Amino acid sequence: MDSGTGGVAFRVLDLLRDLIVTVQLRPGQRLSELEIASALGISKTPVREALIRLDEMDLVRIVPQSGTYVTLISVQRYTTACFIRLHLEVGAARMAAASAAPPHSLEKLRQIHDQLIDAETRDDHSAFVSRDEDFHREIFLLAGHLDAWVTGRRAQFDLNRARNIRREHRIPRGPEVIRQHAEIIAALEAHDPDRAEAAIHAHIGDLERQVGRLFTDNRLNGLIELPKPN
Amino acid sequence: MDSGTGGVAFRVLDLLRDLIVTVQLRPGQRLSELEIASALGISKTPVREALIRLDEMDLVRIVPQSGTYVTLISVQRYTTACFIRLHLEVGAARMAAASAAPPHSLEKLRQIHDQLIDAETRDDHSAFVSRDEDFHREIFLLAGHLDAWVTGRRAQFDLNRARNIRREHRIPRGPEVIRQHAEIIAALEAHDPDRAEAAIHAHIGDLERQVGRLFTDNRLNGLIELPKPN
DNA sequence: GCCCCAGATCTGGCATATCAATTTAGTTAA
DNA sequence: TTAACTAAATTGATATGCCAGATCTGGGGC
């Protein structure tokens, strides 16, 4: 997942990003430049640069002269992330459905779908999540707007963190997801934009509803950004 | 537009961002940490931190041990930015149209619209662009997804840079924009999501088409990222 | 017991110095 | 003339030190 190469700062960035998304660094937790630096046997500088990048992607918040904190999970941000994903994927799916669509172009999508089914059979949660991401990424690729996928994905960190707090070992909603993906593929094959839109709508809407309940989980107490105290 | 407060690094960030968006620093231009630092009478550190943030928002590209360059204007990125704006604004407008919509909530939107008309009358290009941004921002606000606006806006730097290279002193498409905005307001007032979607579609589609021609401007030679040389 | 304030401590912000990779200029050989 | 090689200069990358502001702590006053 990480670039592998690059300077020390980038390796620190990858490390911290992973630790945050997998909630090994918990939301609200205080980080110390010096502490991280000495733990890794390097100086503060590359650590600081990594933290600046993380700050820029809203994964941490640097408070001057006070400390750097892992951002809390924000229900508002999650809701917005769903909104963004929904509308971008609808647009991408419509575009993909309307395109000339060489018959083989959907082959990759079907292949990913098969791998998803396989992951569900093997009950491999990690692979399932990965293949699921690949599936949606492929839709943007088909629409010729891969960059937009990056945008939608960036808005989705909170969802992944909430998921990882649950540490679900069984795959949730596996069969439904597979069924919904199959419907999306069918709509693309039929070159039916309206059907594709409906399929995406159902899929993302379901996701938002299901995961919305996740935020009421007791385990998230203190890890969630409260609505404005005004 | 800038925060006003904050440390030196943030003031450098605001300065450089403005210089880049207004193309006083031209696409492809090489920047030097040391040069900027001494010009501002500060050390390289805050300059570097600002550049890291700019790198994270794709306004510059830091090449290790080589140099930092203002990114070229990318037609691909611009097209994707239009795609993102189109679909997010359609979603937001539909949501705003469908909402309960207290009668006074649209008042702000009408007010901005009036200011836009005023700017067009006075032929104040800068104010026109500003009010235009406010207008679209307000739509996201009405939909309750202001964060999504930030996402859409971030993807739009290239458009603004291309605009500023033209340095148009007359307001382009002023009357059409005003007419299209009026139609959007009318659709929202009528609580008609389909009509709102159509209005946004027309507006953004028009924008993409008009500005698309802008990229063929001779003045942009060398400032645009060429399609993959493969 | 509670509140307030001063000093110690910790944090990030910035400056400075050194390093290594890269680019570039100069030079030499074909 | 040109191509290739070498060395100096430039750049970003990292380490380190110091500073100012924020936080924490503990003692004194109410």
Secondary-structure map:
Two copies of one chain form a homodimer.
Chain A: H1 8-21, E1 30-31, H2 33-40, H3 44-56, E2 60-63, E3 67-70, E4 73-74, H4 75-98, H5 107-122, H6 125-143, H7 146-154, H8 157-166, H9 174-189, H10 193-214, E5 224-225
Parallel strand pairs in A: 4-5
Antiparallel strand pairs in A: 1-3, 2-3
Helix pairs in contact in A: 1-3, 2-3, 4-6, 4-7, 4-9, 4-10, 5-6, 5-9, 6-7, 9-10
Chain A binds a DNA duplex (30 and 30 nucleotides) through helix 3.
Task: Walk me through this protein's architecture.
With 230 residues, chain A is mainly alpha-helical. Chain A folds into 2 domains: 66 residues, Winged helix-like DNA-binding domain superfamily/Winged helix DNA-binding domain (Arc Repressor Mutant, subunit A, Orthogonal Bundle); 152 residues, GntR ligand-binding domain-like (Four Helix Bundle (Hemerythrin (Met), subunit A)). Helices cover 66% and strands 6% of the residues of chain A. The first copy, chain A, is built from 10 helices and 5 strands, in the order αβααβββαααααααβ. The first copy, chain A, has a 3-stranded antiparallel sheet. A two-stranded parallel sheet of chain A has the order 4-5. In chain A, β2 and β3 form a beta hairpin. In chain A, α2 packs across α3, α4 crosses α6 and α9 runs antiparallel to α10. The radius of gyration of chain A is 19 Å and the shape is elongated. Chains A and B meet through α3, α4 and α7 of A and α3, α4 and α7 of B. The structure holds a DNA duplex (30 and 30 nucleotides).
